[in-house]
Amino acid sequence: MIQASISQPKCYFIIRKKNPEKIRTLLRDLFTEAQNVTARIETFRCRFKRLNKKNFPNTNDYQDHRAISVYLALRFPENYFFYKFQMFKAFTEKVCHSYTPIPGKIDNVIQFYCVCKYLRDNYLSKDEELLEQHRNSIDNDCYPDHDLNILTQDFVFAVAEYLDLNNLEPETAG
What we know:
Low-confidence stretches: 1-7
Strand content: under 5%
Number of strands: 0
Shape: globular
Radius of gyration: 18 Å
């Protein structure tokens, strides 16, 4: 997922090298769990934009909701999921969810987290067959995913990418 997007161009690394304390402060603030996640994400974006504009006028900072969700999920894998707009949009359409993602809105990220937590807590964590398959697929080189966030992410991705509503067979009672 990280490699699939251009979220870490050269300018990010140059800013980090030129302003290590400012970047450290931005990340420290982003990772302060006692604060509201929406405010932390938006504050990070705003402050990074200013820093980028100062160092690289008229260039994209590439610190969108997707990139920030990666930072959060890597720092706190038990609390966050890897957000991707197109994936979430496709998922909500396929499951006829009442929320419609709108590009660039912070509400998308929050709704995505809520949907993932709901799926994990109410369905995926109770599916013993799925959990057994998940446990069997993880070896010593893998993140253990005790909180099932990666499994949940994989489920959302699979529905968004592979669920073909035209080829579903009706479930038979039995």
